[in-house]
Amino acid sequence: MRSESQLRVAAALDAAGIETRIVEFDASTRTSADAAAAIGCSVAQIAKSVILRAKVSERHVLVVTSGANRVDEKAVAALVGEKIGRADADFVRARTGFVIGGVAPIAHTEAPITLIDEDLLDHTELWAAAGTPNSVFALAPDHLVTLTGGRVAKVKEENQP
To answer: Which of 2, 14, 46, 47 has the fewest CB atoms inside 10 Å of its own CB, making it the most exposed?
Structure first.
């Protein structure tokens, strides 16, 4: 039986005419490495949803980044035009309707400011959380951009290990 958050994601995909299915795993796909191992894809193909908090407007900023990358918060702040900070679990749940580890890039309860890591466009297939820490769905990069209305930008930290 699907959770309410998975049903929201499925409804958003159906409404957009995206043909994909939500895949559930027994083990958690909470981290990019866990998800990639369960799916059998590269970590770079994981479309990781990172939620940040805009300090002035109190809006949530959704950064969909490659699972292989870390988000450069200074770059995000410059793109958003205001200071940002980390979001706690309560803020994430209130703004998105999802728990940390299961935040989908679509079907948020409040419309986010959305940025998409330019590195995700290098792949033909991406995998994103489907509303729970153990469910995912596949989509093409252009569908991610269209579905989220996100701005493609350079959002990764440059000096990653």
So the answer is: 14
